[in-house]
Amino acid sequence: MTLFFFAAVVAVTAGFTFLNGFRDASTSVALAVRTRALTPTVAVLLAALFNFVGASLSAALALQVSRSWISLPDGENGLSILVAGLLSAVLWGIYTWWRGIPSSSTHALVGGLAGAGLASVLVGGNYVGGVNNSLLFQVALPLLVSPVIAFVGAYLLVWPATWAARYTPPNVVNSRSRRSQAIAAGAVAFGHGLQDGQRTSAVLLLALLASGLSDGASMPVWVALLTATMLTAGTLAGGWRISYTIGYKLTRIDPLRGFVAQLYSSVILLLGAIGLHWPVSTTHTVTAAVLGAGSNQGFPVTNRRLVIRILAFWVFTPVVTAAAAFVLELSLSPLADL
Question: Which of 13-17, 134-138, 189-193, 269-273 shows the lowest per-residue confidence on average (mean pLDDT)?
Fold first, then answer.
């Protein structure tokens, strides 16, 4: 039964990673497509390439994440918790994509693991170690801090950018901004691959530890390849519902402000992944930066009702996935006891 649950974890993790790329492809390319810096086809290919590179390089970071993230019970109990948490995150990701709402896959996963761990304790199983710290440092604080930093920073950076371009003809500014935005889009995709790839690889390493197939001293090559391949495949499939929300419905934005938003987002993602080892949500960062850069204009352009709806989804993401995983773990627990 242990091997059955391990195979289930690998299968659901692959689906979770594919959906991650499918939903978040728009995060890195939406503005570039909106401002005509890139065509949709070229934008998706660029995002897929840099997501693959970022996810492949994230394997080394994933070892540290797995050691400082959470600890699972051994055997079927720990593996069933992973299955329930991942399934709840997948179901919520499909729903938010269908609604065209950008939301964090990491927050959905951590919320799901917390709910599944609570259900495990309720039926006499073991608890998930470190889940309280994960909820605090990977959900609560990023939910409050990273969007604020992204919004304020992008808002403020518009002023020096527009000041530097004050004597340049608008058509020249737009042309230069589009070229720069194409580079920034690749940087955002690379940061997304680093950030989300390491957490997916960490999930698979936790599954290996729980099943007794690894001692956690090194990252198997197949884990890194599976993560990078599924993230890239999802990116190539490209879900444009969320792209339309970010690029067209959220706010109106010109190439210069689009470049500011994406460049600043890429800096936050890369600094968080490499420099500070912080779990930063790509979706929250880019969405908030777009709002910040778009808000710094002389006339109102932001869809406030949509912003409120997105914020509500961000708050409810860990709550809903925890509740769904709680029910799923209760359903799976009889199998884990066999």
Answer: 134-138
